[in-house]
Amino acid sequence: MYTKYYGLAKKPFALTPDPAVVFMSEAHQEGLAILKYGILSKKCFLVLTADVGSGKTTLLQALVSSLEEDVHLCLLNNPILQRDEFFSYIAKKLGLEWDGNKAMFLIEFGILLKRCFDRGERVLLIIDEAHVLPVDLLEEIRLLSNLDEKGQDVLSIFLVGQPELNERMSDDRLLPLRQRIGIRFHLNRFNLEETRQYILFRLRAVGARHLNIFSEEAIAVIHKASQGTPRLINIICDHALLSGFSESKPVIGVELIKESIDDLHFPGEDTPLPVAMPVRPKGMHSTIFFGLIVVVISFVFLLLEILPATREFSFLSKVLPESWLQYLHF
Questions:
Q1: What is the model's pTM?
Q2: Does the structure show a pLDDT above 60 at 101?
Q3: How many whole angstroms separate alpha carbon 25 and alpha carbon 50?
Q4: CA–CA gap between residue 143 and residue 216 (Å, rounded)
Q5: What three-state secondary structure class fits 13?
Q6: What DSSP state is assigned to residue 83?
Q7: What is the DSSP letter of 209?
């Protein structure tokens, strides 16, 4: 459709991750380095979090494509499984037998770890979308690490998911698991310059003859609306190119971007696009409550300083609850 009009070999902003076209921002480069280090450092557990659409799946694909042959990989990207289904999946991926007997699986898994140790090989278990894992399955994953005998250290387990994973991990039952996490990393979204470079990178990748298809002002609006989320950048740019083609506009300007954002807006969303909102830290409500209490008490003592001594109690008795007055020692 619009590809020929803009001189492109194919659509530059496809939503499906393409391992052959990977833009590595500074955060993505750091994340990939940390993932590789997590395999070599023998830390066992690593937690990687990223907002929706921030490119964690692309990052995992880059990691997988860079693995050496001495790494036995089990990548699970749909962890909504029952316990037996989970063990069945791991067994299949690692070439182990599974007949529904968990005890036999654990024996075979322990033998695999010992054999890998003897051969100088490693086992890597990656759980994508780990934020949806139930607590009991997270505990099963922790117990798998117990089979990696002291001194072997051949097993690495990566838990990858949205920021809600941190809240899930705060469960008291998962304290033993939290104590085993050696590395944590959060993949940040693009800043304005990275958004610009990302758009140009995608255009170059499809053979664009001209890279000024999007004006600088349009790119700024794209960044603001998407908050630097790669998936949303793709959606906006693809829609804008289609609209630009239909209106015969060789350069995508601010107005066309705003029109595209309006077209993509979901009714009921607090923001123009469905971006991930910051997760309120646990206990925030109680923090705000006690902060207000401190302010009120400070105001009370200020009144005690400025009101005449003969009037202060009668005034305060009118504006403060009786249950509070007993703590002021009148």
A1: 0.78
A2: yes
A3: 14
A4: 52
A5: coil
A6: H
A7: S
Domain residue ranges in the chain: 2-13+192-264, 26-187, 287-325
For the 2-13+192-264 domain, the top CATH level (class) is: mainly alpha
Residues 53-88 have pLDDT tens digits of 998 988 999 999 999 899 999 999 988 999 999 999
Domains 2-13+192-264 and 26-187 in one fold? no
What is the bridge-based pairing of β-strands 45-50 and 71-76? unpaired
CATH code matching the domain that covers 26-187, chosen among 3.40.50.300, 3.30.70.2730, 3.30.1510.10, 3.30.43.10: 3.40.50.300
pLDDT of residue 290 exceeding 60: no
Bridge partners (DSSP) of residue 214 are 252
Spatial contact of 8 and 208, defined as CB atoms under 8 Å apart = yes
User: How many degrees, rounded to 5, is the angle at CA 272 between CA 206 and CA 214?
Assistant: 30
Q: Contact, 203 vs 9, CB < 8 A? A: no
Q: Match 């504006």 to its residue by tokens.
A: 319
pLDDT of residue 291: 46
Q: Report the residue count for the chain.
A: 330
* pLDDT, tens only, 206-257: 999 889 999 999 999 999 999 999 999 999 999 999 999 999 999 999 999 9
Q: CA-to-CA distance for 235 and 106, rounded, in angstroms?
A: 45
